[in-house]
User: Which sequence fits this backbone?
């Protein structure tokens, strides 16, 4: 019985969530009084193993199969690692690629799965915490099983930074290439263009609270008046109201301006992941319980349609009629 | 070809809400078509409009109340609908990923679709796992978090973009039959037309019990048990400027001036 966690890499870089998995995995291994094994599949496995060799890791298994993530390879390799190690718990990242293989691994191994875990406690049974209803509530679950799969939310656990002395072992997986039904042909970077919101000192960012495309000029005018750059949360881009290069968040850009003014943005975790590193965060939102206030330094709990025109006038602009 | 679309009716929570026991009180909930599924329905309907002989069938696990949402999907252009419900489901504390996958798989095995479209996640439970679990249960291929889809029905391949983190998309070919989990923004979901809404009333909506699907009541059994639900403690230490809109705007303006980030 051990805890097995599988790291994630992309285009030659180990992703941070891998080192967060070390922290979460060590935490669970301590609860279970057992070892932590990490695995890394594909790419420069030797180099990744070196990076994963942090305090708390007992063994690192390298699976030299392929360059980039392929869910067929991952699913087969993890299944075989599982058969070899017989771990109590399997920890995978709740990333886009994690969600592309964790549910299949759990089904194939006939193990219970809980995704997007933000905290865990106790070994028998393990109690996990997750968010529901768009982050409005947290729920805890007991997993009454000897073995289970968890995916952990990125950026919830700190990365493990102390050097370790884990044993590194090459694991020979037997991959059935003929059964692979997906082919990854490459990558594309999106959202480039003339504007780079990551370079801005001041961002005026607009979210769902703006309600309608016709109201966007109000926020544009404010950005102009402040000589700031306009950015947005995901729904605005999904609706086609602003181009993709304006999107802040997990699937958009990570920004770290001096001042980030979030207008009509509730602060979903995917958005916060892209802007929490801002020096000063100011929120304008009618809902005092909106999660944006958890990370805001300053707030105005009021209707943006009342506050923003006043603000534009403060800076000598003229609020458009919306 | 046939496209099966998973359609979930999700609960949306009022700003002010009560928790009773292990769930949000019914009085604080409103029900709607899951946002991600709206995009999945649209993608299926657009595909049926641009390809010959495509039938779009929706599948929903949900009580009778969900039929309003299902009719909405029919009004947007799906051809017919299947709803799965049973007393055993009504009595379950919640349905875990495996149970949902088993239920939908039983329908898929009857329907034998070439393509299954599901939302990336549901707005309420946010497991983000049912589509891929379904694929594995069916022995289908899959791709999670798809934000672009080009279907080559003759070659039996779906060329997709998977939306990774940080503005990177993965370009992947997926062999059919497959389950694709659809990300928001892949298309512009239409509003149902009045004509569509009228037509939807006449489209078939079949209800299946566990028995109809050849499943036992133990399909809902789960080793995962919800033990508590609570409102997270606010971590907010934000300074909130109080007053009328012009007062708070002035506070913010002078803050920005003091900080030196804006002139004027």
Assistant:
């Amino acid at each position: 019985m051990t805890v097995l966690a599988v790291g994630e890499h992309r285009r030659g870089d180990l992703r941070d969530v891998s080192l967060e998995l070390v922290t979460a995995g060590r935490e669970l291994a301590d609860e279970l009084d057992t070892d932590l094994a990490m695995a890394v599949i594909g790419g420069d496995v030797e180099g990744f193993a070196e990076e994963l060799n942090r305090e708390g890791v007992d063994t690192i298994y390298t699976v030299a199969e392929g360059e980039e993530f392929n869910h067929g390879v991952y699913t087969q390799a993890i299944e075989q690692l599982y058969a070899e190690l017989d771990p109590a718990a399997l920890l995978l990242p709740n990333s886009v690629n994690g969600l592309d293989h964790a549910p299949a691994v759990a089904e194939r191994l006939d193990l219970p799965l809980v995704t997007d875990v933000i905290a865990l406690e106790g070994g028998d049974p393990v109690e996990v915490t997750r968010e529901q209803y768009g982050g409005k509530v947290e729920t805890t679950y007991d997993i009454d099983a000897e073995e289970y799969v968890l995916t952990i939310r990125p950026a919830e656990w700190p990365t493990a930074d102390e050097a370790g002395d884990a044993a590194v072992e090459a694991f020979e997986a037997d991959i059935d290439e003929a059964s692979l039904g997906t082919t990854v042909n490459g990558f594309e970077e999106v959202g480039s263009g003339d504007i780079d919101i990551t370079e801005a000192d001041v961002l005026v960012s607009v979210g769902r609270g703006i309600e309608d495309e016709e109201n966007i000029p109000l926020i544009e005018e404010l950005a102009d008046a402040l000589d700031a750059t306009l950015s947005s949360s995901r729904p605005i881009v999904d609706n086609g109201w602003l181009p993709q290069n304006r999107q802040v968040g997990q699937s958009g850009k990570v920004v770290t301006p001096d001042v980030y003014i979030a207008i009509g943005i509730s602060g979903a975790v995917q958005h916060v992941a892209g802007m929490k590193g801002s020096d000063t965060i100011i929120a304008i939102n009618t809902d005092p319980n909106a999660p944006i206030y958890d990370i805001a330094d300053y707030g105005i709990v009021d209707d943006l349609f009342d506050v923003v025109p006043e603000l534009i006038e403060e800076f000598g602009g003229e609020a458009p009629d919306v | 070809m046939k496209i099966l679309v998973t359609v979930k009716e999700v609960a949306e929570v009022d700003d002010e809400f009560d928790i009773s026991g292990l769930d949000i009180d019914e009085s604080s909930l409103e029900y709607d078509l899951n946002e991600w599924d709206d995009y999945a329905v649209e993608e299926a309907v657009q595909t049926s409009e641009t390809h010959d002989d495509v039938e779009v069938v929706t599948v929903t696990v949900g009580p009778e109340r969900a039929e309003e949402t299902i009719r909405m999907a029919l009004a947007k252009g799906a051809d017919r609908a299947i709803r799965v419900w049973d007393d055993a489901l009504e009595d379950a504390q919640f349905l875990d990923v495996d149970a949902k996958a088993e239920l939908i798989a039983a329908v898929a095995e009857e329907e034998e679709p070439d393509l299954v479209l599901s939302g990336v996640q549901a707005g309420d439970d946010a497991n983000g796992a049912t589509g891929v679990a379904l694929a594995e249960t069916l022995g289908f291929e899959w791709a999670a978090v798809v934000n672009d889809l080009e279907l080559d029905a003759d070659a039996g391949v779906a060329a997709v973009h998977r939306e990774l983190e940080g503005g990177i998309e993965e370009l992947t070919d997926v062999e059919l039959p497959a389950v694709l989990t659809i990300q928001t923004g892949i298309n512009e979901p239409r509003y149902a037309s009045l004509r569509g809404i009228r037509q939807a009333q006449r489209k078939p909506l079949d209800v299946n019990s566990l028995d109809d699907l050849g499943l036992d009541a133990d399909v809902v059994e789960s080793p995962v048990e919800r033990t508590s639900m609570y409102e997270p403690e606010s971590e907010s230490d934000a300074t909130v400027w109080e007053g009328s809109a012009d007062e708070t705007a002035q506070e913010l303006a002078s803050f920005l001036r003091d900080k030196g980030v804006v002139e004027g």
About this structure: Chain A has two domains: 2-175, 197-314. The mean pLDDT of chain A is 95.
